[in-house]
């Protein structure tokens, strides 16, 4: 039985009838309209999506991410003092909502107050990888996760990634409603959650939905989500579902959420180390930071499904992933046909050897090119790519890579315009004035 034919079951979730109602309830209970977002990946993207949703409704926001504190969209000097001002403005009503990004290490180091957040979202932890559980960052996440769930108010809401079984079971320990988000509503965890009266958000036939067994409402079609590659980037779809679930839970109407997500465009300056897609020389260009295999796999599936397209990959031997993962990362990237451009090998010769060993594990490994620096590697890649190819840059310095790709795209646009002008006929309709006539 699917959720579209299931009998009505009363959901435990009590959606606020409006944002102002949720905001007033937050104040009346002695708290603040404060939202926290945690996770190994994707938390900054969710914060920015939420900020876009609230700002589009003319709500006054503050955010605290790894880039610092922003109040009314303006970057503040320092972090602790500006965040204290933001909380004071929340209390006085001159700010409507604040969104805080929680880092595993910080939570473990300084802790969190108990029962302070009306809504907490956790994007992911391990994505169901056994090897991930032995990773240092994942161990930090496992230690921080109980502290984060305990920071949700007793009448608050927890939003979890239902595709990540390392987060499974947390809703059973949380006394208030939990919203699960997933790519597939037939996921066993989602099915069980819905059957027991829970609420969820999911992907179904190229559209995103929110609801329970009794009622569902469409949020948005995936076709217009270019930053999620029209739905192909499942990890971005999870981020969209998470942001939409948080917004709906605090009283935002579906129409406003849908419009904001449709208009949303990730800012490179605000999300320099996040997943970005663009077009360069007719090729699909993807820039992201390097990550272990459990984060690399879904990215490869999104940008080059079936490894059918020629791909040029730029990566550093000094990228920030554990040594034990280097060989598997090399093997995954070596499944593509095209070229891998390695740089900074002299800084980490042993790590470079592990990467190349992984690449060679494939029957027909791609060409491996060696350059000293990331800048030279990106320049070499731009000379290699052709229309319909894939360029993937796992960047050490994403801001510099984005500038290089932007300049290349502008130069290509100017060249195309000049070519079009040169192809214009010099003779035409005799009644039309000459383009050279005064």
Key features?
single chain, 438 residues, alpha/beta, Protein-Tyrosine Phosphatase, Chain A, 11-stranded mixed β-sheet, 6-stranded mixed β-sheet, 14 helices, 17 strands, 38% helix, disordered N terminus, disordered C terminus
Summarize the structure.
The protein is an alpha/beta fold and 438 residues long.
CATH architecture classification of the largest domain: 3-Layer(aba) Sandwich
> What form results from the Cα inertia axes?
globular
Could you say which structural class the secondary elements and strand pairing correspond to?
A: alpha/beta
**CA-based gyration radius:** 24 Å
Largest sheet: 11 strands, mixed
Task: State the CATH superfamily name of the largest domain.
Answer: Mur-like, catalytic domain
Low-confidence stretches: 1-11, 430-438
Distance between the termini: 75 Å
Largest beta sheet: strand ordering: 4-3-2-5-1-6-7-8-9-10-11
The helix content is 25-40%
Instruction: Give average pLDDT, whole number.
Output: 89
Describe the structure in your own words.
There is one protein chain. This protein has 438 residues and is an alpha/beta fold. The protein folds into two domains: 19-263, Mur-like, catalytic domain (UDP-N-acetylmuramoyl-L-alanine:D-glutamate ligase); 276-416, Mur ligase, C-terminal domain (Protein-Tyrosine Phosphatase, Chain A, Alpha-Beta Complex), CATH 3.90.190. It contains 14 helices and 17 strands. Strands 4-3-2-5-1-6-7-8-9-10-11 form an eleven-stranded mixed beta sheet, sandwiched between helices. Helix 11 (323-333) links the parallel strand 14 and strand 15 (338-343). Helix 2 packs across helix 8, helix 2 (43-56) packs across helix 9 (254-263) and helix 13 (374-384) runs parallel beside helix 14 (398-422). Mean pLDDT is 89; it is low at 1-11 and 430-438.
